[in-house]
Amino acid sequence: MKNMLLTALVSLSLSVSGQTATPDRLAAVQSELEWLNMDAIRLAFADMKGMKGFDAVALQPAMDELEQLAKEGFVGIDKGGAALAAAERALALKQTILLSNPLLNGDKIVAARFILGDNARQAMAPELGTQANNWSNQESARRRGFDAEIVELSNLRGKTSLRTVFKPADSASIADLKLHWDGNRVMFTSLMPDNRWNLFEAPLDGSGAKPLMEMLEPDLEFYDGTWLADGRLIAVSNIGYQGVPCVSGDDPVGNMILYNPADKNMRRLTFDQDANWNPVVMHNGRVMYTRWEYTDLTHYYSRIVMHTNPDGTENKALFGSGSMFPNSTFDVQPLPGHSSAFAGIISGHHGIARSGRLLLFDPMKARKGIAGVMQEMPYRNRPVKDLIKDELVNGVWPQFIKPSPLSDKYFLVSAKLSEDDLWGIYLVDVYDNVTCLQKAEGEGYISPLVVRKTTTPPAIPDRVKLNEKEATVFIQDIYEGEGLRGVPRGTVKSLRLHAYEYAYVKTVSDHNWQGIQSGWDIKRILGTVPVEDDGSVMFKIPANTPVSIQPLDDDGAAMQWMRSWFTGQPGEIVSCVGCHEDQNRLPIPKRVAASQKPPLKLTLPEGGIRSFTFDLEMQPVLDRACIACHNGEGRAFDLRDGQKDKRGYGTSYLNIHPYIHRQGPEADMLVLQPYEYHANTSELVRILKKGHYNVQLTGKEWKTLYNWIDYNAPDKGFFQADTITSFPYKGYPQIDRRIELTNKYGNGMGVDWKQEITDYAAYLKAQGNITPVRPEPLPPVMPKEIKAKGWPFHVVATGKDSRMEVELASGVKLTFVRIPAGEFVMGSYKGEADARPISKVKINKPFWMAEVEVTNEQYAALCPDHDSRYVDQLWKDHTRPGYVANAPFQPVIRVSYEDAQTYCRLLSEKTGRRITLPTEAQWEWACRAGSDTDFWFGNLNADFGSKENLADASTTDFAVSGIDPQPMKKESSWYPYYSYLPKSADVNDGNMIQTDSKSYEANPFGLYGMHGNIAEWTRSDYRPYPYTEKASAPAAYKVVRGGSCFERPKFSTAYARKAYYPWQRVFNVGFRLIIEE
Fold first, then answer.
1. Starting at the edge strand that comes first in sequence, how are the strands of the sheet with 537-542 ordered?
2. In this structure, which CATH number among 3.90.950.10, 3.30.70.890, 3.90.1580.10, 3.30.870.10 belongs to the domain 800-1076?
3. If 319 and its partner were Cys, which of 305, 306, 331, 518 is the partner (CB 3.0–4.6 Å)?
4. 706 Ramachandran zone, left/alpha/beta (phi>0; psi -120 to 50)
């Protein structure tokens, strides 16, 4: 061994004293010296000492010599001579030491080699057979025009020898190599003679390759596969006849199938909206893979690592759900000797395709974000930052792809170390060593695998029952987990379930096809099921169907949005503890009500399961309850069903959807606050609840309205059938072929959504014509004149003793102004019904009120874990979560009444003062500041531009488009559709979202932002007027006062009232403090 090492040292040392330092030679040495890391080499050397087969004694002289050379340094290598010779000697010593790793003792590597010629140094991963972007499967990758082969490399510690294992004919590509556990054969993706992708197997002896899957259907392709321990295969296939919706189906979507070579039986495993990538068997026999999904998620950041049993049961998120970092995690590989950790390549959405940064993850540390990252290689001491960026790895070097763990510390990987380097095979380790094993001018290498026999994982028996058409869902406690955090027990009364039907290939399916700010997919209403008082529920769902759940309150309105799906396999019991529960917490089994009963059947929607379409669901409600007035005559906008515009939108849809607050196609990746988009945050619901011209909806109509809101206010609910027909895929009519393939390979669960819509239309027709109902006129409002002594009045200038500062933390203070006692007339006959009757109210004692709402900085002083997050952005292609709402100077939002009271308690304890929220009487008195007008500065039509931050002309800047969406030009054909937010367009207050309230004028009492910026909690219960603080029992809602930057003046007056649940965290509500003496 010792003599062999000395020979290697001589052969690898290129230094000859006196050689000329040619530019190429010098550049190569300088490049390699960047990766000469003595600390890393020492650590690896120390680690290898503990490995069987490592001759530390023989290598110690090499280590000592390297230490001395490194200590002396390599100054002057540009002049050649001894300095250059020393540098080359050091690099040879490093190579010898690190390649002596016993994990390479088998001395053979198999990899794919691509002859790239003059393009080798410019080539990126797509030139090595990968997809050309980060959103497509292999079906979209280039198929031919390559010079590629699978090679075996040997003599790794000397002059490497290469031997061809397999070379495809007709310039076909090679992709996704997998070595069998027996170490004597390799699986890969390549082309059949008919140019379709298939999985192949090649023995390493070079005796040829054979297809692994019989091409059972003339239109199906198979790629990106893995062996299973029982001899079956998992592959990705175009079996779903789906297209990536954000590119209107230009790229076909691949989902996973299970195939048995023994009997040629095939079954579809996943029913996912978008791509599945890189299935690989874990040590426990389960299969991990990457799934892309964006049913109402930010699609640049939603590639999630999943794990499942080989038969598709127990399919769950493993890492990345609910986090924006990293955007994409490809090429996942479990770490040997570790029960949960894995390696993966992180990349962006746009930009560099498929290659990127090499990270190690451990889901047992955390299931998402940087908390679950063990380290980045080769940067063990560099913290991984939570970087939110579309082109995540553009300009990043080295670029890695296709890692192959040799242990939990050492890895083979294909890498390109710098922009003008070659793609080579490298040994990298957790200590930061990067050691080249093979690269050659004009070539590129990918998917390196050490040839060795490894332990076959256990074979997990199938749990599916293919004679069944349903799965059972059991939820132990819906209140467990962050999904319903803060929601009182007993609030969830039922679950609404819907299924997704996804876009077709080359079919219009972009974010604005289903509706404006609606979503990507068809949502099929499956039904509802009641939840037990203890939060448990067990019920049946159709198997092999992507199902999503919405928890409903007593009114039938959603409190949370799953924004994803799960699929139950035939006969499977899908079990979870709660709603977005922490999977790293061990569940405590308990006896619950639902488990004592047989599983419930879903209560099907009246008229049958079908897609939710505006014309068939909402229009009948409008026809009965609204169009008697909203008939195209007079000032009321038209809500009649009428002619569609050139984009297929109807008049009634375009007129009513602007009054719905919803998340749109791309909401925050983080788990939403419960009630974030609850129906009571929509203007339409608020005005109807307050008796809008006495319009009376039936219970069924209310539930239909809530359902529409909860589905993101869709319009169409279908894909354009004639367009799909005009684009046959693989020569087949897509709609029919999808049904056929799902029935054949998905246990008979094909969905004919067109027929469902037709059947429901026939059902409605059979109910007879709808007669519009004109609401009964409300009794005339009889204003009663009430006067208050000394009111209205003009505020006299106040002195220094009218202001007071309270310190919250070091350098963080809150200023209060003194509000005098007095009396005034509260409410108004000019506003909504809940602002009357008016009454005289006396403020008995003066009090102190904060001059501004509590800011994020001030809130964090006592409650540091809160994050106000962002304001929603319209359109798609979001590169960030939204518009910043958590800047220190902005008012805190998404705090509940209960949160605000907790803050008051903490500050009271800190200061010894009685700090609380104002009553709504105190709030209105302070807001009016002596005035009896709609606003402290005038009436409803007053110019508020310098006074308050309300929905104004700048609200039009919400109409955005493009990548990292920016304000549209008014000439854009989409501008009329996306400038829909209600606003006072003739006033410009200069801000689109909330800002520092002191950007505007104070009222005469010295208070800022009372009418706008954000609305504010009071401590009053929401009750009918006349106003009183005396009540026998607490009310269901608390009163919120003031308007916000998202509301028009008529909802922002001194007397305007809103009502929310005390636990509800609202997107435009914060609070303002008072001190009572």
1. 537-542, 470-475, 573-576
2. 3.90.1580.10
3. 305
4. alpha
